[in-house]
Amino acid sequence: MGRAVAYDLLRHDDTDLVTIADSNRKALENAKAFLKDKRLKAQTFDAANPAQVEKIFTKVDSAVAAVHYEFNLGFTKAAIKTKTHFCDMGGNSAIVDKQLALNLKAKKAGITVIPDCGLAPGMVSLFTRWGIERFPWVDSVKIRVGGLPQKPTGALKYERLFSVEGLINEYIEPVRIIRDGKIQTIEPLSEIESIEFPPPYGALEAFTTSGGTSTLVDTYKNRLKNLDYKTIRYPGHCAIIRAMYELGYFNEKPIITKSGKVIPRHLARVLFENNIPICRDDVTLMRVIFEGSGNKHEITIIDKATSNPHLTAMMRTTAFPAAIIAWMQTHGYISTTGVLPQELCVPVEPFIAELQKRGISISGI
User: Fold this and answer.
1) Among 28, 30, 247, 338, which one is least packed by beta carbons within 10 Å?
2) What is the model's pTM?
3) 336, 337, 365, 340: which is closest to 353 by C-alpha?
4) 123-311: CATH architecture
């Protein structure tokens, strides 16, 4: 994702410098070979070392975190200290809440910090705002998103597109929704429904997962009657993951085995990483459904991996939105300061126009 963010930012002629930082030297070398741009600087760093993070932040106008969510709070503090605009790709609601608590400090520093700027959580929040502002009759919003291999194999019919830790979080954490005008918490991996996309995808399934609504539940709790989010997969996926969930494969409490203590979640992560291949040819499916007073409107995205340059659809629909927001932060499009949900500070129409410039086709706009 970080490589795709850098690729996008380097497309702008007025970009003077893009710094990519990672603990993995080989990953940096691969990124440099892919990007091939004199304005690119690569350096190793420890994301858990505040001094190293701050040193990098002092040399840029805006920073984007494409790292494990556990670092996002520390990065937010570094952004405030160095007065650097910052956005991240989220992945954990509890971390986002801690970031939002630093709103006044960010405001005092004169910067904007925007969590959850990927796909879902991410740009689905801006599409939600677009529909609510466009159609006064809206009282219900359904958000459905999935990243899928174009040629599914195996029982799960799934291939890895992002962090396994983030994926497991989506599958096991409580799901916040608005239902009948009240904020409620429901189980993940439940309420399976069928959803249809044009061939070759056809009938798919969607089920509850956490995090996709980000801050929308709080933003629109007094405006909407219903708001929920579900993940799209090929049929049968949820039943398998649900069985693993019920058997305790994602628990963090150690269990005793003949080989010693094992943390089931750690084992599950390794099994996922070792046995589910990384996806190279994927499709991102997104549908946001607005309903109310007998009316209905849908926004749909079907975005596929590209070959030249090789970018997965998940990279395009996760990294590009973050890159667009970082670019907007440095070009005066976002004037409000503080730590803010994107649906409260990112201008929707210019954001959508930027997505379309990148070849992301959006029907229903």
Assistant:
1) 247
2) 0.95
3) 365
4) 2-Layer Sandwich (3.30)
